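In the design runs reported in the main text, the only information available to the sequence generator was the tokenized backbone. The following block is the verbatim input for one such run; it is reproduced so that readers can re-run the procedure and compare outputs position by position.
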């Protein structure tokens, strides 16, 4: 017998929680002899796949890192002064190590349970305060996906606010080209005409929805737009401004000269370029837009004890909740990156930010003076960080080539002029190298240091030099030393329940292990420091990684054509529907505009369909949670001549593999429609079934769910789409870098490959698991869900099951009977789970009064049992209320969660003990995660909307909760 001399172990056994012994015992509890038997009882035979996926065999973790190093080495990191909304920045080490690389921050989920999310909520409130102060407007959201989509969201918001007969949106040609293109993509299916042109000659009329301006302009010009703003307002339109946050520390805020909305990208506030993302886009606005504003707003409220508490304000105004009436489909954001940007502002404070901005402005002034001395022509004076230079005595191409020889990338405007955008990373030596690039490779007879002694920055246009103060709140003045900053971030982290604390069993959200090895490459400079528009030969490593990931995702989905551009699941939905729409238009069938959507669908589905210019027709679901085939046939027949698509989630949002999925696809195909598959639940079928095999034409894949990109407290996410050969020609393009098919639709995101740097994570996930590990992960995800359902089914009703009695990777527990018997709601159960150290499951979706539990494959059996034990103990507490043994209104569920301050107070008036309140299970005595606030008063926060750091005086005397 040969000895085993390979000491390396596989990654799958580290990723998958239950051991082989646990799996056998769990199967025994379900009366099953194997995982294969479970899969046969769960996945319909008509779609089940027996053969392994055609993917490379799994790498172990050390081999993976070796392979990733080889790929990274093929990226060439140069100094990129291209600008266009992306800039070099210095990420403070204390922020990189303790937020970006810290699972206590990157494994959080969207703060739906505010009581155990106070840390990130405060960090996001800081971010909103930065936006409000720097832009001079009244409200801001907690981030959007990127600058281009933020601008498009502003356009849609204006369209919803103005009269219906208006259809013109003006975009200044001084905006970045990718921003213009994204706006054009989003406008066309909505029937909005986009006029791109010179802002100085634009004359708004009664058909004007609004205008989009850029401040500073893409070529560096700083313009006074006040007169144009007045003209747009005079005809009833609105004005959005793309602004640079760092520049706004020196420039008059747009809100002070009339802008209604300001959008942009906060990347240069300490977030790596990452070849395009992820970065936190932003939007601030006037108060009138607070109920139309897309994305999430963090607001100040109070808890049941009258103490200040934060929450997502106006949650019912989230656009996608409006379904087919929505004007935005955004469901997630870029929270982790917004937190970083906000912390960057906290660490530097207003003086530090201004000093950085002044240094950049001074360097630009020195560069401009030197270039003029060399005989070159500058397009603008009085700039912030960007020069547009027309070289004299040599061509633009010669300058660009010489710069590249010196390790520098500049922007080619394509008209004989060259762009140079300086940033925080630039030194005097870098400026000297730029002089050489414009001087045929030779050093001139002066240096940057020489000129710095004699040059002053040219003034901005009159009235545009900032005079108003900003970031006056104490949080932006307290944490200058690394010691204090570290403690502040750790204090906030301790107020948040993350995956490093316990299981987060949110149905349809797939909170699984984000392995450390997968995360390693994200912060390597070879991936993090590339500008998205560098020449292709400098990004060969990325190209190789993208090519492999596209092939792998195509194989997994059974749909070979892949676009990595959409940078959220909702963006993937939109991209998929736009591709379908383009296919119909290309065939001359522009009348096909009806999209069938099951009533159980997530709100982003109908919202995405409306944004794609489609009419939503709702299809019923039956008592088992599956699509009602009779109603589907009736609706498909009624709209056959106009049928564009159906959007279907599989397994269904009820946690069931529908037996008739092939029939659903056939019904739509036979009537000329296409099948869009929402891949939110792909974690139940990787390696077990493929959407393309059973009829899907296009699907999106939530990389932040199935493929383990961290959720980051509500983002980043990624939503690539996979399509068949029919739709391949229409995959999204880009105006700057060649992507997509031969007949590509416009860009969906600002960057060519969306949030490129985090694609490294999903590439590593697939490479580490290989075909066997991926299949095993799906099998164990299904096992874990069925095991938990089996443990709970005697005390709770499991609402939906498949034909053979199995659930998929998640299941729904019906809590509605307890409202009748004990006046207990799903919210009471979720809040009481916090006392046991858990995040509550998804509440009241897709069925009101229920909770949806998804364990994933990476949770161990002991953790599954601990969560089941908590729910069963809560069930006993409910029974005590129903039987009268516990007071119906003053009980542990109604008063949950219990904070340390409450249970250690001098007075205790409740009919149950302090110990029962705070330590309801044995494990809570071994380790206790304490919620930091009592139950948050949502109504108070909505009635008294505050979405910036309140004045410090209010902290001394917190408001009292409403009765």
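Verbatim output:
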């Amino acid at each position: 017998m040969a000895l085993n001399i390979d000491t390396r172990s596989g990654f799958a056994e580290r990723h998958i929680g239950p051991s082989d012994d646990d799996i056998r015992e769990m199967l025994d509890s379900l009366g099953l002899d194997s995982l294969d038997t479970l899969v046969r009882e769960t996945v319909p035979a008509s779609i089940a796949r027996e053969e392994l996926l055609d993917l490379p065999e799994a790498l172990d973790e050390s081999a993976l890192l070796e392979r990733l190093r080889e790929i990274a080495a093929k990226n060439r990191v140069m100094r990129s002064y291209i600008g266009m909304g992306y800039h070099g920045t210095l990420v403070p080490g204390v922020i990189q190590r303790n937020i970006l690389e810290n699972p206590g921050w990157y494994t959080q989920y969207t703060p739906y349970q505010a009581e155990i999310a106070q840390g990130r909520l405060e960090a996001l409130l800081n971010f909103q305060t930065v936006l409000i102060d720097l832009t001079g407007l009244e409200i801001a959201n907690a981030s959007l996906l990127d600058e281009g989509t933020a601008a498009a969201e502003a356009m849609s918001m204006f369209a919803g606010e103005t009269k219906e007969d208006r259809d013109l949106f003006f975009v200044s040609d001084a905006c970045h080209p990718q921003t213009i293109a994204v706006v054009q993509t989003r406008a066309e299916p909505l029937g909005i005409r986009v006029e791109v042109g010179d802002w100085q000659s634009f004359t708004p009329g009664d058909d004007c929805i609004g205008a989009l301006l850029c401040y500073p302009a893409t070529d560096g010009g700083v313009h006074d737009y006040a007169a144009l703003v007045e003209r747009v307002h005079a005809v009833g339109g609105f004005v959005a401004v793309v602004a640079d946050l760092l520049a706004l520390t020196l420039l008059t805020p747009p809100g002070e000269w009339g802008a209604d909305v300001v959008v942009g990208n906060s990347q240069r506030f300490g977030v790596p370029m990452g070849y395009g993302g992820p970065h936190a886009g932003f939007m601030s606005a006037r108060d009138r837009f607070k109920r139309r504003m897309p994305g999430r707003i963090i607001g100040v409220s109070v808890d049941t004890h009258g103490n200040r508490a934060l929450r997502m304000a106006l949650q019912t105004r989230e656009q996608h909740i409006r379904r087919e009436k929505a004007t935005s489909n955004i469901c997630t954001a870029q929270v982790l990156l917004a937190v970083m940007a906000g912390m960057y502002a906290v660490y530097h404070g207003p003086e530090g930010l201004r000093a950085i901005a002044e240094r950049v402005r001074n360097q630009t002034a020195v560069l401009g003076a030197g270039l003029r001395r060399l005989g070159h022509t500058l397009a603008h004076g009085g700039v912030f960080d960007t020069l547009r230079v027309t070289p004299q005595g040599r061509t633009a191409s010669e300058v660009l080539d010489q710069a590249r020889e010196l390790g520098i990338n500049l922007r080619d405007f394509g008209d004989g002029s060259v762009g140079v955008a300086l940033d925080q990373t630039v030194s005097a030596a870098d400026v000297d190298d730029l002089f050489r690039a414009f001087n045929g490779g030779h050093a001139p007879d002066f240096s940057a240091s020489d000129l710095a002694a004699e040059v002053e920055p040219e003034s901005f246009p009159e009235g545009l030099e900032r005079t108003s103060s900003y970031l006056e709140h104490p949080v932006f003045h307290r944490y200058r030393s690394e010691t204090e900053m570290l403690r502040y971030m750790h204090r906030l982290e301790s107020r948040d329940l993350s995956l490093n604390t316990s299981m987060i069993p949110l149905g349809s959200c797939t909170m699984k292990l984000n392995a450390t090895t997968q995360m390693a490459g994200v912060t390597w400079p070879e991936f993090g420091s590339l500008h998205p528009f560098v020449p292709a030969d400098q990004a060969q490593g990325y190209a190789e990684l993208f090519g492999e990931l596209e092939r792998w995702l195509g194989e997994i989905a059974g749909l070979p054509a892949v676009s990595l551009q959409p940078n959220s699941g909702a963006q993937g939905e939109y991209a998929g529907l736009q591709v379908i729409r383009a296919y119909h238009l290309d065939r001359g069938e522009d009348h096909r505009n009806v999209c069938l959507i099951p009533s159980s669908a997530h709100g982003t589905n109908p919202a995405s369909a409306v944004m794609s210019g489609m009419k939503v027709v709702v299809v019923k679901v039956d008592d088992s949670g599956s699509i009602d085939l009779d109603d589907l046939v009736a609706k498909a027949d009624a709209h056959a001549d106009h049928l564009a698509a159906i959007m279907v989630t599989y397994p269904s949002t009820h946690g069931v593999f529908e037996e008739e999925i092939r029939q659903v696809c056939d019904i739509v195909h036979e009537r000329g429609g296409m099948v869009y598959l929402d891949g939110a639940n792909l974690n139940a079928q990787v390696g077990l079934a493929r959407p393309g095999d059973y009829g899907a034409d296009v699907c999106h894949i939530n990389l932040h769910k199935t493929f383990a990109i961290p959720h980051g407290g509500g983002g980043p996410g990624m939503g690539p789409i996979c399509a068949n050969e029919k739709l391949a020609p229409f995959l999204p393009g880009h105006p700057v870098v060649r992507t997509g098919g031969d007949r590509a639709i416009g860009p969906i995101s600002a960057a060519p490959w969306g949030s490129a740097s985090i694609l490294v994570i999903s590439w590593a996930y697939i490479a580490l698991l290989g075909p066997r590990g991926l299949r095993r992960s799906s099998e164990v995800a299904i096992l874990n869900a069925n095991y938990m359902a089996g443990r709970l089914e005697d005390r709770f009703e499991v609402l939906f099951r498949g034909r053979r009695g199995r659930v998929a990777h998640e299941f729904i527990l019906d809590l509605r009977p307890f409202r009748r018997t004990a006046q207990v709601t799903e919210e009471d159960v979720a809040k009481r789970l916090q006392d046991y150290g858990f995040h509550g499951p998804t509440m009241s979706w897709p069925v009101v009064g229920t909770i949806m539990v998804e364990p994933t494959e990476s949770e161990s059996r002991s953790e599954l049992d601990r969560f089941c034990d908590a729910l069963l103990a809560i069930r006993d507490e409910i029974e005590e209320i129903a039987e009268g043994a516990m007071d119906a209104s003053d009980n542990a569920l109604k008063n949950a969660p219990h904070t340390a301050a409450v249970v250690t107070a001098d007075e205790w008036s409740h009919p149950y003990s302090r110990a029962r309140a705070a330590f309801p299970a044995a494990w809570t005595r071994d380790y206790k995660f304490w919620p930091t606030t009592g139950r948050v008063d949502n109504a108070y926060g909505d009635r008294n909307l505050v979405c910036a750091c309140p004045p410090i005086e209010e902290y001394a005397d917190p408001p009292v909760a409403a009765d």
